[in-house]
């Protein structure tokens, strides 16, 4: 049941990211501002992949394919070294990707830093799952409170994605048209409490 709930939540987030991509595209067309709909599309695709994995477990098939290839080609015993190298490279890959995305979206200001960070986190998390190093799998299965470590990683990815949508999504500006001669009322100044 938990997998289905996570899959639905990630699927809904992916839909919201596609809506954000659409409004980014409208921002580019209407205002000529720096807009990055492809960032939102990449985040949506990754969220859909993780949603699909939660229901079907298809990332495990990718891992099993490489495991079978290693057996057939005779380097199954040495695959642990490759897995450890990939796991050790994940933090460096994350740093490089964060820097690359920050440079890419620099003209949008701080608005798209959190969506880029969410994308990098989810990419690195997915890579760790695909590599499927035995020690990492064991650690991901350990329970910490009500969830496994893997479950907490999904929660962090969900929270980052929700935060990315809250901070990074373009909102429509509201234009109020007043009849000729009327003025917009000014707000009253705030009164400070006398102590």
Structure commentary:
Helix 1 (2-31) packs antiparallel against helix 2 (37-56). It is built from seven helices and two strands; from the N terminus they run H-H-H-H-H-H-E-E-H. The chain has one domain. Helix content is 71%, strand content 2%. It has 195 residues and is mainly alpha-helical. The termini are far apart.
Entry summary:
Helices cover 71% and strands 2% of the residues.
Cα(first) to Cα(last) distance is: 55 Å
Helix share of residues? over 70%
Task: Give the beta-strand count.
Answer: 2
Helix-strand makeup class = mainly alpha
Task: Quote the beta fraction.
Answer: under 5%
- How many helices? The count is 7
Rg is 22 Å
Structurally, the number of domains stands at 1
The helix/strand series, from N terminus to C terminus, equals HHHHHHEEH
Average pLDDT, rounded to a whole number, is: 81
Main sheet? 2 strands, antiparallel
Q: What is the approximate shape?
A: elongated
Strand order within the widest sheet?
1-2
Given as residue ranges, the uncertain stretches (5+ residues, pLDDT < 50) are none
């Amino acid at each position: 049941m938990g997998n289905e709930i996570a899959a639905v939540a990630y699927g809904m987030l992916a839909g919201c990211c596609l809506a954000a991509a659409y409004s980014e595209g409208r921002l580019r067309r209407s205002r000529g501002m720096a807009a990055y709909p492809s960032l939102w599309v990449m985040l949506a695709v990754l969220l859909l992949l993780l949603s699909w994995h939660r229901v079907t477990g298809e990332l495990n098939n990718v891992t099993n394919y490489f495991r079978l290839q290693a057996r057939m080609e005779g380097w199954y015993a040495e695959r642990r070294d490759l897995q450890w190298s990939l796991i050790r490279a994940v933090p460096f890959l994350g740093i490089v990707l964060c820097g690359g995305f920050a440079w890419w979206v620099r003209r949008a200001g701080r608005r798209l830093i959190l969506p880029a960070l969410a994308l990098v986190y989810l990419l690195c998390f997915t890579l760790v799952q695909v590599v499927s190093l035995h020690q990492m799998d064991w650690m991901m299965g350990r329970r910490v409170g009500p969830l496994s470590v893997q479950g907490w990683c999904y929660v962090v990815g969900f929270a980052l994605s929700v935060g990315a949508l809250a901070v990074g999504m373009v909102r429509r500006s509201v234009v109020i048209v007043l009849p000729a001669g009327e003025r917009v009322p000014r707000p009253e100044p705030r009164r400070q409490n006398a102590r």
